[in-house]
Amino acid sequence: MNPFLGQITLFGFNFNPQGWATCDGQLLAINQFQALFSLLGTIYGGDGRTTFALPDLRGRSAIHFGNGPGLSNYPIGQRSGNETTTLSVANLPAHSHNRGISTAAGEEDSPLNNFVAMHAGAFNEDATNQVASSNTGSGVAFSNQDPYLVVNFCIALQGVYPSRS
């Protein structure tokens, strides 16, 4: 079976079959691959005068171009996304936490599993029933990737020129 020129196929082995190239963003000379250039143009890069680029699928998930119902539009060749994300306070909705505070005198030596309370023998007559709190967290980036399986994406450099239907 002959592939279509420009067809991208997944292979389970770690080399390119004859007539195929790895989808790694490499630049090709237009004068050597005119038919493939007529299909890809500069969608994936290149200067369009002497070179054009193959798609670069290293570390990327491929999705279909366009938009589905209620989804964003994704033009062919667009690259986006990050391997990791850092969550900050700005990413979280505003919220508050109720604190269990009692004005009665405390009876425990340790606050573990207990409410904050006034000291039985108050040190300061002007003490308030307010407890200060602050944000917590370390701002460390975390993985944002779906589970994955690494395979070899290759593009056909030779094959049947696809007709438009």
Task: State the total count of DSSP E strands.
Answer: 9
Largest sheet composition: 3 strands, antiparallel
Could you list the spans in which at least 5 consecutive residues all have pLDDT below 50? Answer: none
Computed over alpha carbons, the radius of gyration is: 30 Å
End-to-end separation: 20 Å
Structural class comes to: mainly beta
Mean pLDDT: 86
Helical residue percent band: under 10%
Q: Could you state the order of secondary-structure elements as H and E? A: EEEHEEEEEE
Shape: rod-shaped
DSSP helical segment count: 1
How are the strands ordered across the major sheet? 1-9-2
| Quaternary | single chain
Percent strand: 15-25%
Describe the structure.
The protein has 165 residues and is mainly beta. It has a domain at 1-62 and 151-165. 4% of the residues lie in helices and 18% in strands. It has one helix at residues 34-40; strands spanning 8-11, 20-22, 27-29, 51-53, 84-85, 101-105, 116-118, 142-143, 152-156. The strands form four sheets. A three-stranded antiparallel β-sheet has the order 1-9-2, with no helix packed on it. It has a two-stranded antiparallel ribbon with strand order 3-4. A two-stranded antiparallel sheet has the order 5-8. The radius of gyration is 30 Å and the shape is rod-shaped.
